């Protein structure tokens, strides 16, 4: 039987620029398993929003940049101790890379083969693995 945990649906932007991918680091969190972990930026899907609209809005809010979702990448279903997450990832492009962090504590632009070296949130790991695999 599936647990009755809270279900959260989110989007994640795989923002690419000049053969690098944007990685952002979460701040401290009371949930130790996501505290200070790296992730792909994004956020919760609001009622009536398409996944693409959510990506554009969330990235504008979190990073103050405009992105263009190019294609859906993979959807990850992940069970954290306190909630179940459905995360839709999209390959995105951006023109302006002058990032202003509003929710994260750090960001890095890394080549695909450098992504493995970061301490990722568990739900983001399948995305990292597929990006690296596709790059081989």
Could you characterize what this model shows?
The protein is built from 2 helices and 7 strands; from the N terminus they run ββββαβββα. The model has no long low-confidence stretch (mean pLDDT 95). The chain has 136 residues and is α+β, with helices and mostly antiparallel strands. It is globular, with a radius of gyration of 14 Å. Helix content is 18%, strand content 39%.
Describe this structure in a few short sentences.
The chain has 136 residues and is α+β, with helices and mostly antiparallel strands. The protein is 18% helix and 39% strand. Strands 1, 2, 3, 4, 5, 6 and 7 form a seven-stranded mixed β-sheet that branches.
Number of separate helices: 2
Helix content: 10-25%
Q: Please give the number of β-strands.
A: 7
* Shape annotation: globular
Give the SSE order as H and E letters: EEEEHEEEH
The residue-averaged pLDDT reads: 95
Strand-residue fraction? 35-45%
Low-confidence stretches: none
Radius of gyration: 14 Å
Main structural class: alpha+beta
Cα end-to-end separation: 39 Å
Largest sheet: 7 strands, mixed
């Amino acid at each position: 039987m599936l647990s009755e945990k809270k279900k959260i649906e989110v989007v994640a932007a795989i923002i690419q620029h000049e053969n690098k991918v944007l990685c952002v680091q979460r701040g401290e969190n009371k949930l130790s398993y996501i505290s200070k972990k790296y992730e792909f930026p994004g956020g919760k899907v609001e009622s009536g929003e398409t996944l693409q609209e959510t990506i554009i809005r969330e990235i504008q809010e979190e990073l103050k940049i405009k992105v263009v979702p190019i294609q859906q990448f993979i959807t990850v279903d992940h069970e954290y101790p306190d909630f179940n997450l459905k995360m839709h990832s999209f390959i995105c492009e951006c023109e302006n890379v002058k990032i202003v962090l509003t929710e994260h504590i750090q960001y890095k632009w890394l080549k695909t083969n450098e992504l493995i070296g970061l301490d990722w949130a568990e739900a983001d790991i399948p995305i990292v693995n597929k990006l690296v695999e596709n790059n081989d």
